[in-house]
Structures are given as C-alpha cells and as structure tokens.
C-alpha cells in the first residue's frame, strides 16, 4: 500500500477517526454515577447558574478548544466543504492534545456565509475555553475572526493567519540578529497576499518592521497604490499597497533584505536571490515545493544566506505546531479573554530566545547528532524539543496578565512544573528513537521475510527512512505478496533456497564445529532464516536482526544466541519491555528469556536494563521485586533479589540508584516508598522493575499492558553482542517498525 492507502487504513481502523472522549473521574459504582449525573450533578449546575465562572472549576471548559471550519480553504485541497474537512480538523485536535494536552471538539459548519459562521460560533461560547478557526478562505476569515474577537469573551485565533506569522517572526528576530541588521531597517518582500501573508506582514510590523518597508505581491504583481485606486484590491490587501511603480516578483525582490514566500513552488530563481541585499533572509514556505529549493538558495551567492522552509528535511523548518498548542495552553491557563498582539509577540520572542539556548542531548540525538547551535542553520527550535511548551506557554500567560487579558492569576514561578506534570515525557520515547534512526539508517535483517507483516513493515521502514531492510525468504513468494498488497518498493531480498550462501555456511561451520555441527549440517542450517540472519549480522553484512513472528520465542532466540552470543561484559541475555503510561514510563525485565535467574543473573539483567533506559533518555531507578519488603519475609526466594540489589549497589559500574527486595506497589507508589520506607535508596518511584523470575515478569508486563492501558514496546533483548530482537508471535507491524528503530539506534551507538 502507498501513503494514501495507508492513511485511509489509519483513519478507518476501529474506532474510526483519530480522537475520542474519555472519562476523567471514576464511574465504577452507583455512587460514582450519582455524582457524575443525576441527582448529584444538580449541585454544580446550580452553582454555575449563580456564578458562571464556576464552569471553569466544575467542567472541562477551561481545557477545551473548538476547532471550527467550513472547509473552504483546506491546505493543498482548496474548497472541499465541511464534511470532507473533518479528518483535518480531527488532526488539528490530535496536535493540540499531543503537544499541549488540550482537549478539542472539532466543529464543521456547512455554511458559506460568514454571518452564519459568526452566529453559530458565538452561540457556542458556553462550551469552550477558546476557539481555533481553521481552513476558512480569505477574505471571509478576516471578517469572521474580527467579529468573533469583538463579540466573544474567550480567545479566538485563526491559525492559518497567525501561526506562520508568529513562527517566521521568531525566525526573523534571530536571523536579523545573525546578519547584524535592525528590524526597523529591514526591507521585506512577500510573495502571496492571502490570509497568512497579510497576517505575517501585520505581525512583522508588531515586531518592529516598518510598514512602508514591506512590499507585497499577489498573482498580478506588486500591490501598488495605483491598483487600489483602480478598485482591484480588497481592504486587507490595500493596506499594504506601496506608492511605487508596478512590477513583478523579481522587481520586488531586488535589493530586499527579506523574502517571505507564501505562494507557490518554484517561482524564485537563483538570479532573483542574487539581486537581493547582502546577507539575505529567505523564508520559502510553499509546500511541498518551496518557492526556491533550500540548496539552490544557499548556493546562489557567497555571503550568508539564511533559509527557512516548511519542510522537515531542511534546517529552519517553519512549523505551526511550534506555536498554536502552546499559545492556547498559556491563554487557557490564565482564562484569557483573547489572544492579543502582545501574547503573539511574546510567543515569537520566547521561541527566538529558546533557539539561542544550549540544545538538550535528547533533541540533538533526535536529529542525528548534527550540530544544533544558534546560527544561520538553527534559528528556530525543533518541534520535538520538549522545552517549547515550558518557554512559550509561560511567556503567553505572562503577556496575557500584563496586558489585562487574563481573568486568572497564576504563579509563574511554579507554572513550568505544572506544565511538566500535565504533559509528561513518555510519548516522546519512540519519536526520539525513530528520528535518531533516520539520521543514519542501518541494514536490518528481517529473518521471516515471507510473512505479510514483515513485508509491510519493510515497506514502512523504507518509506520512513528508518533502516534498509533485508528480507530473507523465497523471492517469488515475497514479490507475489508485495503485488497483492500493492506495495511499490524494491527491497533487498536474500533467498536461502536459491542464492549462493557458501560464505555464510563456512562461517557457521567455523563457529559451531566444536558444538556438534558438521559442515553438511552447517550447509543445511544456513538455509534457515534465523541462522542465516544471525550469521549475516555476525559477519557484518547486516547491522541488526529481527525475528520471532513465525516461531516460538525459544526457537527464534536459539540461533542468534548460538551464532552471535552475548556481549563481552555479559553472561546472559534478557528480554525487556518498555511500558509507557500517560505520565510514566517503566522498563520491565526479564519477561522473555531467563526462567529462574539467580542473584548474579538478576544483577546483570538490572545493569543492562538500566543502560537500555538511558538509550531512551530515561535516568534509571531500579527495584528488585519480590513479595517481601526489605526483609519482611526471609527465605531463599526473597534473599535472591536482596543479594542482587546489593551486588548492583556494590558494582562501581552502576551509577544509578538500586534497592530491593520490595513489593511491586512499594516500588511504584511514592507514598508507600517514601512514607512507610523512608530509608529506601530510591528517592522517587522505580522506573526499572526487575522481576524475580520469568513467570512473574511475563505475567506482570501483560497485566500492565492489557489492564493498565500501557503501550508496550518490545521485547528488547539486552546483553547481546550485536543488536538482535525477537518479536512475539502476533506482534503488529507497528511493533516491528518500532523495534527496527530501536535496533538501528543500538547499532549506531555501537559504532561510536
């Protein structure tokens, strides 16, 4: 399947769409229900009737944004109508929730008349804490936003207008500083005269650019006073008309300090870039093709050329997700009546300031360890930078307070901590790993290459640039399956039944000849995908290996253990699951390999699991689990984890806190850990849980996954000499893709 078919399947999967409503209070007993609804709900209703502001205390209004559209200007699709725009509006809701923990109702209005949209939206004010207008055509969007801002007492924000303006504004502040130019001296040429272009021009004036220094071009050329007098322009374009001769975009760009492209791709040439002033700033934001290619713009001249685009594969991506979730977060948290110019400027300057700060290692790793340092190729923070929330939202909240737009006072000194608690970090885990994998893709053997899931995973791995997959299996069967699935890619395939495998058979014989394997048996074994894949990794013809979908775990693990073996500092391999919850992530071991490990094995498993946690940028805190708390039961079974904990504490190579033996709730519940057992080595709940045996570990992780609602990533093998991961039978394509990313990052780190 191609991207479009994958997107259809993504949206079609049960439940359809991308968002749902979930409860935030217990609803398990009759009393719960009587509090949630009748008769108890009458009390908050009566209170709100007396004091409407109590709606923010008794309901979700304060964290609820309405994303409202009529689908008249959907990016890349145009006027497709209200119904067809719903997937986009749901997607906007996903971004609000994902990046700022803001809930959304998407409202698609089947109206063409701005007056109808204004009336309907205004009537919904009791429901929402804020309104995000989306994909409404110009000039209707200007009238709708202006009227709603005047008539409603909650924030109203048209992201299509202001999002790009704010993000490029942040980039402009930094770019001008880098090339040593003052904002009020800049001459700016804007290609495009739609909603985002006009809003960007207005916002640049708010930042300090002089209005008379902005030249705007539409499809007919430069917007001039003469065209205003001829009645060619609406009132929104007319305010940027210049008293200058008519001309085209090339004329407008000559001598300009800044070019802002909000139009169509490929309309700017290198010659036009060369005509600009020294050290030009170029924001070419048409998607998917910019007005001028990033590299073409950089190579057009020898001085400093700062280029930003809307694309993620070039530096300085102008991405609206850097703005709107966090602007609304700050506005909602102070119950702002509007999102005013001061709040937008504060957001832009906060983003600009953040780009000047030292970038966390996690963000650097997510972008391939490339230098991320303030300069021409880093004028904006990266979208995955978790600090954006903690910089922009407080700046917006403070600006709202100082401009008298806030109806609630908050303690700005503790606000960042509240934001951290609200959002959490666990959802960043796989994004960080997959982005890191994309920077230096490795060759990953998929040993069960004829399995449909493996083939689909190979396609996604290739499409996302995570790795170069090598499928092992019958070539004709793989191609037939690919044709049936309409997968348009050309993976590398090694066919054990047809290809020349003599070098691999010889190597397998050398490794196993004193383990009872004859040369003839080596020739036969190498036709098995698990043995072949293991030898390929051992010989360096591949960097990592995934298997396990079509085999029981022990039989899938046996070949890599025999051929690749454990690392120099390891006696045992172990299986680890990463379980992510809303605000917590834990690593669980051993869940797949060692049936009844001794104290030394538990200690080694604990050390390797802690090292794995750090690969995900999690500082480990390990607990050795039992049914005993610190000697409350003393027998052979409880002494084993107790000894393992001591071994880890005594190990000079272990630089993270470890304690045990302890019960599971002691390990993960702070009140028990620090209240009842204040002598514990762990000051915070454990995030690395080492179970006393395989049975307990396997049962524990599956209960947490199925009943606790955790997302499970794994099993990840630790202790192996090279990256090998054994999937569980029944794992989905996403599990294979995720583990491929983990394997690639593991291989990258081994290369360092």
Automatic annotation (TrEMBL):
Domain Malic enzyme N-terminal: 16-149
Cofactor: Mn(2+); Mg(2+)
Annotated InterPro entries: Aminoacid_DH-like_N_sf (IPR046346), Malate_Decarboxylase (IPR051674), Malic_N_dom (IPR012301), Malic_N_dom_sf (IPR037062), Malic_NAD-bd (IPR012302), Malic_NAD-bd_bact_type (IPR045213), ME_PTA (IPR012188), NAD(P)-bd_dom_sf (IPR036291)
Domain Malic enzyme NAD-binding: 161-401
Residue ranges of the region described as Disordered: 1-24
GO biological process, alphabetically ordered: malate metabolic process
Keyword Oxidoreductase: yes
CDD domains: NAD_bind_2_malic_enz
Basic and acidic residues compositional bias, start-end: 8-17
Keywords annotated in UniProt: Metal-binding, Multifunctional enzyme, Oxidoreductase
Keyword Metal-binding listed: yes
GO molecular function: acyltransferase activity; malic enzyme activity; metal ion binding; NAD binding; oxidoreductase activity, acting on the CH-OH group of donors, NAD or NADP as acceptor
Pfam families in the record: malic, Malic_M, PTA_PTB
Family: In the C-terminal section; belongs to the phosphate acetyltransferase and butyryltransferase family.
Protein name from the UniProt record: NADP-dependent malic enzyme
Organism: Haloplanus aerogenes
């Amino acid at each position: 399947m191609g991207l479009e078919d994958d997107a259809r399947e993504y949206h079609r999967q049960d439940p359809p769409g991308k968002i749902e409503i979930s409860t935030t209070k217990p609803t398990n007993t009759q009393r719960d229900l009587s509090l949630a609804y009748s008769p108890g709900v009458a009390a908050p209703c009566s209170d709100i009737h007396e004091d409407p502001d109590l709606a923010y205390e008794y309901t979700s209004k304060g964290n609820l944004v309405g994303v409202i559209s009529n689908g008249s200007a959907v990016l890349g699709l145009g006027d497709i109508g209200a119904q067809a725009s719903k997937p986009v509006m749901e997607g906007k809701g996903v971004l609000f929730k994902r990046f700022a923990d803001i809930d959304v109702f998407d409202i698609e209005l089947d109206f063409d008349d701005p007056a109808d949209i204004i009336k309907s939206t205004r009537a919904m004010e009791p429901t929402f804490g804020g309104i995000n207008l989306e994909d409404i055509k110009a000039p209707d969007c200007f009238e709708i936003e202006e009227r709603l801002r005047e008539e409603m007492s909650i924030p109203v924000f048209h992201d299509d207008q202001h999002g790009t303006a704010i993000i490029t504004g942040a980039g402009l502040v930094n770019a001008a500083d880098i090339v040593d130019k003052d904002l009020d001296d800049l001459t700016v040429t804007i290609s495009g005269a739609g909603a985002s272009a006009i809003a960007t021009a207005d916002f640049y004036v708010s930042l300090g650019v002089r209005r008379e220094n902005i030249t705007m071009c539409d499809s007919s050329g430069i917007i001039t006073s003469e065209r205003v007098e001829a009645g060619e322009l609406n009132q929104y374009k007319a305010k940027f008309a210049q008293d200058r001769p008519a001309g085209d975009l090339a004329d407008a760009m000559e001598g300009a300090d800044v070019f802002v492209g909000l139009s169509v791709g490929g309309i700017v040439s290198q010659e036009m870039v060369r005509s600009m002033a020294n050290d030009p700033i170029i924001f070419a934001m048409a998607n998917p093709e910019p007005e001028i290619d990033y590299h073409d713009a950089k190579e057009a001249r020898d001085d400093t050329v700062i280029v930003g685009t809307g694309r993620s594969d070039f530096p300085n991506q102008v991405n609206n997700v850097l703005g709107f979730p966090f602007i609304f977060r700050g506005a909602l948290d102070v119950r702002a009546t509007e999102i005013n110019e001061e709040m937008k400027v504060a957001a832009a300057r906060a983003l600009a300031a953040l780009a000047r700060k030292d970038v966390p290692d996690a963000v650097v790793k997510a972008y391939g360890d490339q230098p991320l340092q303030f300069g021409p190729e880093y004028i904006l923070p990266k979208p995955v930078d978790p600090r954006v929330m903690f910089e922009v939202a407080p700046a917006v909240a403070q600006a709202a307070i100082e401009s008298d737009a806030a109806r609630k006072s908050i303690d700005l000194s503790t606000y960042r901590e509240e934001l951290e608690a609200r959002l959490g970090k666990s959802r960043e885990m796989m994004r960080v790993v997959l982005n890191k994998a994309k920077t230096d893709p490795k060759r990953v053997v998929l040993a069960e290459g004829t399995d449909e899931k493996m083939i689909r995973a190979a396609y996604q791995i290739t499409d996302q640039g995570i790795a170069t997959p090598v499928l092992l299996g019958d070539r004709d069967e793989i191609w037939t399956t690919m044709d049936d699935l309409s997968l348009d890619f050309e993976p590398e395939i090694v066919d054990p039944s047809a290809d020349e495998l003599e070098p691999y058979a010889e190597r397998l014989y050398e490794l196993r000849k004193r383990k009872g394997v004859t040369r003839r048996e080596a020739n036969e074994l190498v036709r098995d995908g698990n043995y072949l894949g293991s030898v390929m990794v051992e010989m360096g013809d591949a960097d990592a290996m995934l298997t396990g979908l079509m085999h029981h775990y022990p039989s899938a693990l046996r070949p890599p253990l025999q051929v690749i073996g454990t690392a120099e500092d390891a006696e045992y391999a172990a299986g680890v699951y990463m379980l992510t919850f809303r605000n917590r992530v834990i690593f669980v071991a051993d869940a797949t390999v060692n049936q009844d490990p001794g104290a030394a094995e538990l200690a080694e498993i604990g050390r390797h699991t802690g090292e794995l946690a750090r690969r995900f940028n999690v500082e480990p805190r390990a607990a050795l689990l039992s049914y005993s708390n610190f000697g409350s039961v003393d027998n052979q079974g409880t002494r084993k984890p107790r000894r393992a904990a001591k071994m880890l504490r005594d190990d000079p190579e272990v630089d993270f806190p470890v304690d045990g033996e302890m019960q599971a709730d002691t390990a993960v519940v702070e009140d028990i850990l620090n209240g009842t057992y204040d002598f514990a080595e762990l000051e915070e709940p454990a995030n690395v849980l080492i179970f006393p045996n395989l049975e307990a570990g396997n049962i524990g992780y599956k209960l947490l996954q199925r009943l606790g609602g955790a997302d499970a990533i794994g099993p990840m093998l630790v202790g192996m000499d090279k990256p090998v991961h054994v999937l569980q039978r029944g794992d989905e394509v996403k599990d294979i893709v995720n583990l491929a990313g983990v394997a690639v990052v593991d291989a990258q780190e081994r290369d360092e």
